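worker-03 picked up job from queue 'complexes'. Input manifest follows; four sequence lines, order preserved.
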Amino acid sequence: MGNKNISMAVIRRLPKYYRYLADLLSKDVQRISSKELSEIIGFTASQIRQDLNNFGGFGQQGYGYNVEALHKEIGKILGLDRKYRAILIGAGNLGQALTNYTGFRLAGFETIAVFDANPKMIGLKIRDFEIMDSDNVEEFVRENDVDIAIVCIPKNGAQLVADKLVRAGIKGIWNFAPIDLEVPSDIIVENVNLTESLFTLSYLMKENLEG
Amino acid sequence: MGNKNISMAVIRRLPKYYRYLADLLSKDVQRISSKELSEIIGFTASQIRQDLNNFGGFGQQGYGYNVEALHKEIGKILGLDRKYRAILIGAGNLGQALTNYTGFRLAGFETIAVFDANPKMIGLKIRDFEIMDSDNVEEFVRENDVDIAIVCIPKNGAQLVADKLVRAGIKGIWNFAPIDLEVPSDIIVENVNLTESLFTLSYLMKENLEG
DNA sequence: TAGATTGTTAATCGATTAACAATC
DNA sequence: TAGATTGTTAATCGATTAACAATC
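worker-03 finished. Artifact:
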């Protein structure tokens, strides 16, 4: 049962709800009204109620929301109760950082292999992973149950790797290459584009300095 | 002369225009119409014309846009012709990756110092930088001309560091800590929240699998 | 019960798209 | 000139906010 059309604007607010609810939970806050939450999270109370009601009536009139229950519900909505098997492609600086990134496991993602195209890297170890040859990634995805690929390679090779992954049956890509990958519409791509973020910062800095 | 109110939606599309125009330029394409650009970038032609006209009339009726000129103009709008002096705080995996990230210099950002709180890290070298003690960051910002700080530390210490930076007169923060920093409204904060990105991917994967 | 706060409908606002006169 | 395409105004669409009846 996929949900009726939830807009990306709503979806991208969900992790924020989850995070603020976890904070409240760690402070032993039992319940919270949309008004109180609005004050700490910075969305309007109205928006909070609208957002949550896309997924169900989690609150109670006159009471508000139970923090623990809501936190758990949003976790479920985000799919954090699931396990996804991931491979990482591109064991450069960023790739290594992500391999060691613990938030990854907390979200239910488990890295099962690491690949690189550089012969000097192949065979070296990152955490428990012996770096494998990128040439074998298609075969590996075919023969193992891989849900997502984390793509951390320069933009030149990225589309080619994406094509391989798609052929091998990958379901999602967490893409750090500064390029818009072209994939069939049933493959999920979530981009983290540091260049775009940096350019945005540059723009805002410039505007701010000029007044 | 700051621009009339440009929405964030428009601003976040600018880096994409810049990137696609660079691609066209590298393919020696001289001119392009909003319709042609729309086909490769995936925005509507109407939106492209609206977006660009926020900043000036860069096109010519009956002709379209000169690729090189437009690319250059957007670079200027993004402030890529400027120099910003940056420090990096938190020399862990991600911090090291960013220190070595070349796109950074291409955008006009120059790293001038690297800090870490871990005594075992202090004194070690990353690229040309001897890692300095985070305790000295406030003093350093005060005494040197620092425009932005790249914050790559765990969320616990992040607000405290941000407070120090603000006191010392920082103008912008590129924030990788998974927390919403509270800073005065004249300080620019650009967030890169890997956890939120990952949770979004998890949500979309789940929805996709469930149909 | 009275007070509080949700869930939900209606109103507003802003962003996107369509249309077309201006003009190269 | 005729054709193409912009710049810009108007129309549409979608997202946010306001309002309030339902109800705990």
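worker-03 released lock.
Residues 84-195 of chain B form a domain with the Rossmann fold fold (CATH 3.40.50.720).
The first helix of chain B runs from residue 8 to 26.
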